[in-house]
Each structure stands twice: as structure tokens, then as C-alpha cells.
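Section 5.1 Outputs to date
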Amino acid sequence: MNLLEIAKSGAITPESMYAGGQLRADAARKFINSVVAQNEFLKKITTHQSAKLKSQIDIWGLGEGKLVRVAGGTVPNDSQRARITPTVVSFDNLSVQLHTKILRSTLEDNKDNPNFEKETFETFSRGFGNDLLNLGINGVGDSGADFANLNKGWLQIAKDSNEVSKSEFEDATPICDRLISLIEGSKNIANDAVVLISKHDYTALQVELSAKNGGLSILLDGNARNILGVPLEVVPYMPNDIYMLTPLKNLFMSTTHTVVRDRWFDNDEAALKYRFEIFNDYEIVLKNQVSLAIKTQTP
């Protein structure tokens, strides 16, 4: 009975599901919002939720240089009228799953904690969010053969795009020089652009700068937080020796309202098992506002 009570506890109950474990739309939104809210980086990008596996959104903007002078007593001609042109962004949301379990012994050890499954569920949500971020950074394809091929992430999208400004640097190039070249070579830097950088390279940058005159405070405080006025964004799972310049809101993660959560007790393994499934995709909306710097590949 204790196991049954634990199995039926938690923020999302069996009553909030349809048959087969698919969450109702409101519960699905809460699940996705919970996953995003527990990940500091995912909170900063744009999350798009839709009811369909294949979806499109229009990003509207006036563009620049639309001011004109129309003489009094005349009407503006077609070329003088500002036209709002949408940027169409398409998503092909693919299945990603998380399989996990809680052993009977763990359940018994925590049977007096009424919040145990809720706390465990939040741990699963954080793990799910971390994996979604990891995939968004390091995904290279959508064949499903392994983790990196569950979906194509932002770095691979940028590498494949002809609109993205790209540059290379040698292995011996200091981190500071790499970042300066990235920013100076960017043709279209948005006001809210940041540089995505790994924790390893960010730390190496602090050490580099601390060797310069007056650099001791940088080493002690780790306060070199921008280069040429562009903020540095340290991103979990970001690979070393690659840097991306872009507004964070330019990075999109799409999810559908279809969220499946199956939960059952496996007598053979003596474990309470979970299977989470969502459908998601990644995209960069304005690729001409992205610059990428990568280390030169040696034969």
C-alpha cells in the first residue's frame, strides 16, 4: 500500500492523463515549462510550443532604412511604403525519450517522505532539461542512431548555413585573440548578441588576462565577462575551441503539446519505472546574425 501511495503521488497524477500515459494539453505545458524553468540556459532562449509535429511560425519585422520623405499633397508610392516581411521558421519535431526507474529498496527507504516522488520527478525534469540543452548544443543529425543523432543542434545548424559568418583559428591562438577576431569579423552584430563559450575556455581566458598588467583581480574574481563590449555566456555542454556569436533569443527550441509519461511497477526488476517522451526540434531564426569561430582542423 505504501508503494501504491507513492506511485500515485506527485504533481502530475494519473487523473491528468489520457489512456496510454499521454498528458492532457494543460499538463503537458506544465511539464515542458517545468523542464525549461529548471535549466538556466533554456530559460534564456526562445521555446516554441505547438500542437503539431510539423509546424511553422512567422517572425515579423520592419527591417531597417524604411524612413522616406513624401512631398505634401502627394501619396506615398509602393516603393515608399514600408513592407513588413515575415521570416518563416519551420520545425520538424522528433521523438526523444527518457527511461528511468526507482528501485523498490529506495521506495521503501523513503516511504515516510510524502514528497519523495515529487522530489524525484523534479530530478528527472532537471535531467531531461540538461539532455535537451546538450542535444541543442551538440546534436549533429536526426537518424536516431545515438544521442548526437536524435536531432540537429544549433552549432551544426550554424555550420551548415551559408548565411552564418565563419572563421578559423590555429590551436596556438590565445583565447582572447580568438574572441576578438570573432567579434571584429562579424558583419551583423545585434545589440543583444552574446558569445557562447565553454567553461574550460572561459577559465583559460581568465588565466590569460590575469597575466597582463593589473590582471590579478581578474584571476581572483573571474570578472572578465565581456570582450569588446559583447557579453560572454558560459554554456554547459559547449565544446571547447568553438565560439558562437548570436542573440540568445535567436536560438529556438520547439516542442509539441504531446508529452507521454508512462509509469508502472516492474515486479521482475522490483522497480518503479518511468518513460518520458516529448517531440522537439531546434532552429536558428536569423542566421545572418550569427558568427562562428572554429579551430582549424589538422589532417
